[in-house]
Design brief:
The chain has 328 residues and is of the alpha/beta class. It has 16 helices and eleven strands. Bound molecules: flavin mononucleotide.
């Protein structure tokens, strides 16, 4: 399954694992790269010690690292730290690209930009993105409102006109070979997958959280700001995050102002962290996408990737050539 994404990233299969903050460590990124995809460490809000440990855990695998850009802007020296590990790519999501884009490219790393709208895709092209990830609202974690199914072909058309050298990956709801095949048919050159790899053996996720996700169906998630309020993360509007409808989240969803009231917040913040550390799903919050309904097991990341590729190849093999014009 050769595409512009596999050529650009020098990989075998057009699958990137998402830089899920603190869940995607060096072992997961290395396992995805070793299986022929491209693994990203989740730099999240930026913790130098954690980043050092996880780059070490990735061994010599050819991987990259993703940042939450508005948070990185508060701690910009982390870019230099990550570039000192010679990543093959750096991914930026959720914030202004200009302060970092040129530095990343000048260091010889590829620039991957995750976008949620056409306007953000234009900004990513202007910043010199090598790969654009079009993220739909099905996705786990933070994002905006547009759905993958229309966002991807619209950005594919835009790139064909404005930046034909830029590769496109689809994100949001891709958890199996059907999603990969569909993304290619929509004009993407590959996919970026988060939730499915969150439920992998290598992810830094408590087993009780993974078990809850395996048992859940796709009706079990919601976009909200509850987790950000509870963790006191200062997310810019209008971003929201998709996660499980846990009791904690649903206790407060729709009552955000009441949660933010200082005494309540102190109590609920403690409840959130205590439950998080104890693996108590009900009393914490966890980010995950609508793809939960497609996740049936926790498996090694390499096996997940190979299943996805085998299934997509089988499905695409059934498609007449004339209909697969988007497969480059
Ligand atoms: C648990 C979790 C944490 C995430 N953390 C980040 C993050 O720190 N930075 C980021 O750019 N994207 C993050 N994302 C979003 C992913 O980059 C990606 O857009 C998403 O996982 C794709 O949709 P999917 O979950 O349906 O595969 C996260 C997603 C999940 C599920």
């Amino acid at each position: 399954m050769r595409t512009r994404l596999t050529k650009k990233l020098g990989i075998e299969h057009p699958i990137i694992s998402a830089p899920m903050g603190y869940a995607a460590g060096g072992k997961l990124a290395a396992a995805v790269t070793e299986a022929g995809g491209f693994g990203l460490i989740g730099g999240g809000y930026g913790d130098a010690e954690w980043l050092g440990r996880e780059f070490a855990a990735s061994g010599n695998a050819r991987i990259g690292c993703g940042f939450i850009t508005w948070s990185l802007a508060r701690n910009p020296q982390l870019v230099e730290l990550v570039l000192s590990y010679a990543p093959a790519a750096v991914m930026l999501s959720f914030g202004e690209l200009a302060p970092f884009a040129q530095r990343i490219k000048a260091a010889g790393a590829m620039l991957i930009c995750q976008v949620q709208t056409l306007a953000l895709a234009r900004e990513a092209v202007a910043a010199g993105a090598d790969v654009i990830v079009a993220q739909g609202a099905e996705a786990g974690g933070h994002g905006l409102e547009r759905a993958t199914f229309t966002l991807v072909p619209e950005i594919a058309d835009y790139l064909a006109r404005a930046a034909p050298e830029t590769a496109l990956a689809a994100a949001g709801g891709v958890a199996d070979g059907r999603g990969l095949a569909a993304a290619l048919m929509l004009g993407a050159d590959g996919v970026l997958v988060g939730s499915r790899f969150w439920a992998s053996a290598e992810a830094l996720v408590p087993p009780s959280f993974q078990a809850a996700v395996v048992a859940a169906d796709g009706d079990s998630t919601i976009r909200s700001t509850i987790l950000d309020i509870a963790r006191r993360f200062d997310w810019p509007k209008p971003f929201t995050a998709r996660g499980m409808k846990t009791r904690f989240t649903m206790d407060w969803h729709g009552r955000e102002a009441a949660l933010a009231e200082p005494a309540t917040l102190e109590r609920e913040e403690a409840r959130y962290w205590k439950a998080f550390q104890a693996g108590d799903v009900d009393n914490t919050a966890m980010l995950i996408g609508e793809a939960v309904g497609l996740i049936r097991d926790v498996a090694p990341a390499g096996e997940i990737l190979h299943r996805m590729v085998r299934e997509a190849e089988k499905l695409l093999g059934r498609v007449p050539d004339a209909a697969s014009a988007s497969l480059k």
